[in-house]
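Re: that chain you flagged

S.,

Sorry for the slow reply, it's been a week of failed gels. I finally had a moment to sit down with the sequence you sent. For the record, here it is as I used it:
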Amino acid sequence: MKQKTTLFILAMLFAISTINAQHVELKQVVPQPFTGISGHSSPNGSCDTLNIYDAGSWSAYYYDYRGGGSVLGTNNLTATKDATILEDANFFDVNGSDYNFISGGLVYFSYANSTLTENLNKDVVFKIYDDASGLPGTLLSSVSIPLSQVHQDVLNGKLTEFKLGTPIAVPASGKFYVSVDHSNFEWKTGKKDSIAIVATDNHATANKAFQYIKDNNGNSWMPVPDFWRNADGSDSLDVTLFIFPYLQNSLTSCEVLAVSMYNFGGFVKDNKAYLNWSTATESNNKGFYVERSKDGRNFSSIGFVKGAGNSSQVKNYTFTDDNLKSVGTTTTYYRLKQVDLDEKANYSNVIALNLKDIVQWRVYPNPVKDVATIELNLTTSSKVNLQVISRDGKIVLNSDKGLLNAGVQQIYFHTQGLAKGSYIIKVKAGTNTYTMPIIKE
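Prediction finished late last night. Pasting the structure tokens below so you have them in one place:
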């Protein structure tokens, strides 16, 4: 692993400028010196903490907004009724590297607090997105950490560590974004939740920072220089956030995960959604909050299912959403928030259940680099078998997935051991057989 014992040597420096399309003053402040990442587990061997070695030569700043709060974090832009910053993200490109999976990361916060003690229970959500033409695209995974934990990390001089419930494949393009979502925070009289993310000095690096902004035109992702700039275009804020993803070569090259899920699915009948999922192993598992959304982005909890705590056997879980009709949409989205006994949380993949007919099956992504998802719409409980067949007719992968419940089911298969080229995916589900060509990159 690339790592440096002492990361950031900082000098106190203050600068005032008028960067921002809104003609506001931007205060640039260097935080107190930070030395090392003691107290955090660090990947090793075939794992790496991306950019953390390079950060040893970066000057570290946080950027205060004149009206209060942080430019890169929670701020007081709503006071001008111009915009609200909902998320801050950093861009990464590992194309051509040996990295196959993202398992978590570290984020350097200069402060994290709230004027209301109870608001320290609010979650900071860390998200991974793929790339969509130079902006964050599809949400790949997320995990939440209470603001209180981030606050304690800052007090102890530590970076905040987040770990995904399951490592996710690096997108085929090698491009992805790591985001800090603080959209549930508030900034108004008597109620101020705040975080500030450390970044490089202005223009010290090519801009890698992006923000998800809500303004009069709606919600959209923007590169930081496109928003924080002089009105006359003479200067802009070009920075890289101190976000360091954990990357690894294989699923097993780092650490054993607390909960290993191998399927999550459901179906709709009589205006009710019947969800089911299974775990292969559990460690310190308190249980699962079932979350629902109309748009696939904004989720709220609708119930809790107690976990097994510790288990090395397959455990099956179910949950019924009796109030589906009240949602008022054709498609409803669900995800699971798995919570440990120490309140650390991880999120499952998102599934979409439709009141109308949906496709019987699909495979994505295609082409695939490392991990593909097969989504099946099973009319009845069925034994499922997966085969990958080479162009010369040889079966190069054969996997029984066992008996899966009726409804939409997601199953996953890893292709790291396959040579690049074209293959046939063959899925047997009960008496039905489905085939589809797929490209391995």
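What I noticed first: The domain at 259-348 is CATH 2.60.40.10 (Immunoglobulin-like).

Talk soon,
D.
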